[in-house]
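User: Could you walk me through two proteins back to back? I'd like the raw sequence and the structure tokens for each, with a short line separating them so I can tell where one ends and the next begins.

Assistant: Of course. Protein one, sequence then structure:
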Amino acid sequence: MKSEEKKIILKGMTLLELKDYFVSIGESRYRGEQLFNWIYNHISFDYSEMQNFQKELRNKLSSVSELQTLKLITKQNSPSTGTKKFLYSTYDNKKIESVLIPEGDRNTLCISTQVGCPLDCKFCATGLMGYKRNLSPGEIVDQYLLTAKEVGKANITNIVYMGMGEPLLNFDNSVKSVEIFTHELTKGLSRKRITISTAGIPHKIIELSELGLRVKLALSLHSCFEEIRTKIMPINKKYSLNENIEALKYYTKKTKTRVTFEYTMLKGINDRDADIQAITKLCNRLPSKINVIPFNSIKHMNPGGISAELEPTSNENILHFVEKLRNNNITVMVRETHGDDIAAACGQLAIKTN
């Protein structure tokens, strides 16, 4: 049992790390590229399938290393939208969720980067779980690999880091997973189809821009007014919206991409004419578009305080809000609700614990 606990986890390693690992166990560096291909392209978790490895090497790898990081516990399918939610267990029996969302010719996988979340956004169920720990690079990547094994790689076209947790508070592990997804040897995924969503950690946004990954970036905006944003997103007290906007300006210039502002519609809080004017002013400051999101109930987590008082803006008022923004020449998308019947819609991911 002790020897198994000491086994090194190879899933989540970059190509260079895999090459270095093989050298460290007395094998040729090129074996690292072969294993990279088996793990991330063939989605193989069993050394016995790797026929370009001699039996002796397969046995050696089995004795000193592991490929699996997560175990699929349950999967749910939404009868109304076809959205699929996957519940995974980690090695230390923590639980996380991922969601596959069909949207026309796109199938977007929403992955988690932390067990729970420390930010306590009032409209998000994950924050009600509290924070347990960061996910490893392997645990982040494994959500894609295990889902792809279930549905087929071709049926996942996009990845969004919008599940449980704040990706930029698990910066190194999130970045390493992106490096694996976007490596030239990883087939089937494009950096243009990967989005990292953040509540706003300005110095990490700047650090991300310097890495040359050029993935899409989304900011959870939800209000252009500092006082309101702090009320529904406590992280704003530490990292103000103004600081984040300056960081986003830098990101758009450095990466030559535009940012997406995520905006959950909350009745009487951020759906006023003053909000339309503020969003218009903000979107004119940097290359951007806004993604309007209906508020999805988080009552399955029995929230208290402000969270229990939140109500969704009506569909009629959302359409009115969007029309006015578009009349101001703002690019606006309206996210349809997918998976709310299985608590898989935006803001609903959470694990109930005793």
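----
Protein two, same layout:
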Amino acid sequence: MEKIWVAHKDEIVEGACKIVKVKNAEYGIYKVRGEYYAWRNVCPHFGAPVCKGVITGTRLPSSVYEYKLGRDNEIVRCPWHGWEFDLITGEHLVDPDTKLRPGKLEDGGAEEERLEKADLELQAGDLYIWL
């Protein structure tokens, strides 16, 4: 496995995405509620660059003509067709069986690489992807 530096943790802020190219793939790196997540920049719907989409929240149950938003900065909306995904779990908001391709943050070490997975490691303030 190869460890590749992708960002300093201070470059990744809540409500934003840093897209990095590693080898032949792009990954979006996010910070959500203080935790780091890496997702392949590919929407499972039509292959759109999902990480270039808007980072938002979602509507919560409310009365007619009342719009309550929640989960701010936890949802990414695909720029092509508007599909929305949970940035923590990678699940599509309507169909949980449809998911983004995940990455995982580890505090040292990395699990064995899988085809659709990028492992992140936080080490001394720097984020690395293991391939």
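Residues 104-117 have pLDDT under 50 and may be disordered.

Let me know if you want the two compared in more detail.
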